[in-house]
Sequence to fold (254 residues):
Amino acid sequence: MIKFFRKIRFDLMEKNKTGKYFKYAVGEIVLVVIGILIALSINNFNNSRQERKIEQEYLLSLQTEFEINLTRINNSIKENKERVNAVDDMLTLFDNNVRDTISDKAISNIMYSVFSGEAVYNPSNGVLTDIISSGNLNLIQNKKLRQRLASFESKLEFLKLVENAVKSMKSELKSQLNKNGSIRKVLIDRGLNFDHKSISDSVNNKVIFSLTEFENSLLDYYLTIKAENGPRAFGGIKEEIEQILIDLDLEIKK
Fold:
């Protein structure tokens, strides 16, 4: 094709038809530009199609990841509610009329429920972290979804601060229990057998429920873990995950 156009150019020059030559040259340039534009358009189309394919793969992977996250946050909320109920039961022991009607074993069970384990949320965020760190978040076309994904990790950072505050309060409670009560007594009442006697075998954990300092610390802990299920902590993360899953589902079905 190029040789064909070149032959026409030479024929026009040899016949001294300068005007027609320039018109033809302009036409040839226009054709070349059109050809380039078509090539670019095809290339852009292929790139766009490839990007949409990658986007769909990301969306599906994120959907799986956030479904896992929803299950985990629901478990955290459930565990935290159980902890709140246990502390609520423990707070009743500061009432002499209640404490005197409950056996040592029942008190130990309540204490064990409060002091064992933590309601901690451990998110699955490998896919999201990879997308953000690779700079491919912009491949997700939905602006609101993109913004939610970009801000999700910062919400987790705030939750971590709340969890650390809860751990600190619980550590203070354990410290007071160590000073004024008997962990050994709790464990024995829970069925753990020791081979040797101890000086703490005669300690009665009911004594700790006559201490105002312990009650105050327990109340601080209670109010904090109760708020932890609210919109600024576990509850807020749950709502955010649910909204992200809704947005992901809509984008995947497009």
